[in-house]
């Protein structure tokens, strides 16, 4: 089957900008007659068809930003939204939020709905199913049409766009080193399968810290769940079979649930077992005992993502010059580890 030609392909072949191609196809008076004829002829020759998502975006700005996130059950994503709204509202933009609920299909549907003349660009965190499938065509088609896109937290190198992430590997490394410094010898990791970008990086940070300290990596102490959704049974089975003296969890929900399990078994936190989780949320602060965490600075991440997107929208800088902003995590020490 012949590959579908995109605006990016036409721009590259004719050595003009994507913006010029887009305007020429819309017969804009800003483009010279010669250029318009050349672009339109090329598009006709190669049977160019506008992308279904991007075609519905209007030429004029809507002053709306579309945000698609996996879920709001995780405190981290609520802070990202807060950061996006804080910056966007100050710039006169509204924010429309949709949830993918970790579903690839819902992610695509949300994009199509938001692009129906409603928004100027997207800020997204990929669903776990999208990363598991490795299918990013819906994102590539949007960026190839010159529609601004910023990925936050869960990202992929398969798509050329701006990105904002936390240094997840460093965060897990810092947390594991903290546990090692406190004399813990049997450190467990509760995470998800490596298809999820954040989990893969955090697993690498955990392994790096153990290797640097000349400690063996016991694969039996690593529990990889299928997704970020709670799997109580798997965690219960893990703790019934494994004897550990410290646990690093990929999010605060897994951590707080695990703490309750070991407490029911009569273990004392942090005397018998220490815990560190990711995300400095409400659960972490009010857990009993309060939870030591890797703070991901979600609000700051959201602010930066909104700034990057709005700069692209207002400067009409649709080509290249993509940036990846990497924020440094912070270890917030509380009562679930030995101070």
UniProtKB/TrEMBL annotation:
It holds the Pfam family LacI. GO terms for molecular function: DNA-binding transcription factor activity; transcription cis-regulatory region binding. CDD domains: HTH_LacI, PBP1_LacI_sugar_binding-like. InterPro entries: HTH_LacI, Lambda_DNA-bd_dom_sf, Peripla_BP/Lac1_sug-bd_dom, Peripla_BP_I. The keyword Repressor does not apply. Keywords: DNA-binding, Transcription, Transcription regulation. Residues 5-59 form the HTH lacI-type domain. SUPFAM superfamilies: lambda repressor-like DNA-binding domains, Periplasmic binding protein-like I. The keyword Protease does not apply. PANTHER family: HTH-TYPE TRANSCRIPTIONAL REGULATOR GALS, LACI-RELATED TRANSCRIPTIONAL REPRESSOR. This is Substrate-binding domain-containing protein.
């Amino acid at each position: 089957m012949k590959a579908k030609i995109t605006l990016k392909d036409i721009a590259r072949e004719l050595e003009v900008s994507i913006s010029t191609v887009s305007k020429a196809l819309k017969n804009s008076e800003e483009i010279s007659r010669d250029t318009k004829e050349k672009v339109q002829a090329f598009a006709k020759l190669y049977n160019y068809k506008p992308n279904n998502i991007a075609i519905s975006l209007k030429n004029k700005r809507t002053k709306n930003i579309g945000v698609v996130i996996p879920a709001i059950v995780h405190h981290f994503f609520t802070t990202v939204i807060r950061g996006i709204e804080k910056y966007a509202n100050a710039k006169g933009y509204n924010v429309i939020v949709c949830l993918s609920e970790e579903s690839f299909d819902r992610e695509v549907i949300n994009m199509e709905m938001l692009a129906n003349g409603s928004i100027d660009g997207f800020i997204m965190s990929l669903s776990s199913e999208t990363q598991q499938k490795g299918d990013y065509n819906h994102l590539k088609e949007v960026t190839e049409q010159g529609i601004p896109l910023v990925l936050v937290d869960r990202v992929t190198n398969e798509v050329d766009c701006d990105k904002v992430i936390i240094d997840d590997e460093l965060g897990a490394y810092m947390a594991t080193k903290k546990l090692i410094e406190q004399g813990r010898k049997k450190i467990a990791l509760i995470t998800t399968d490596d298809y999820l970008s954040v989990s893969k990086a955090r697993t690498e940070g955990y392994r790096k810290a153990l290797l640097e300290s000349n400690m063996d990596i016991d694969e039996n102490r690593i529990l990889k769940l299928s997704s970020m959704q709670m799997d109580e049974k798997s965690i219960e089975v893990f703790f019934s079979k494994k004897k550990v003296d410290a646990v690093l969890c990929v999010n605060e929900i897994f951590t707080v649930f695990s703490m309750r399990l070991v407490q029911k078994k009569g273990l004392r936190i942090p005397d018998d077992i220490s815990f560190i989780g990711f995300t400095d949320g409400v659960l972490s602060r009010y857990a009993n005992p309060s939870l030591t965490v890797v703070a991901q600075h979600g609000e700051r991440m959201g602010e930066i993502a909104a700034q990057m997107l709005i700069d692209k929208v207002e400067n009409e800088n649709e080509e290249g010059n993509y940036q990846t902003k990497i924020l440094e995590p912070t270890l917030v020490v509380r009562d679930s580890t030995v101070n």
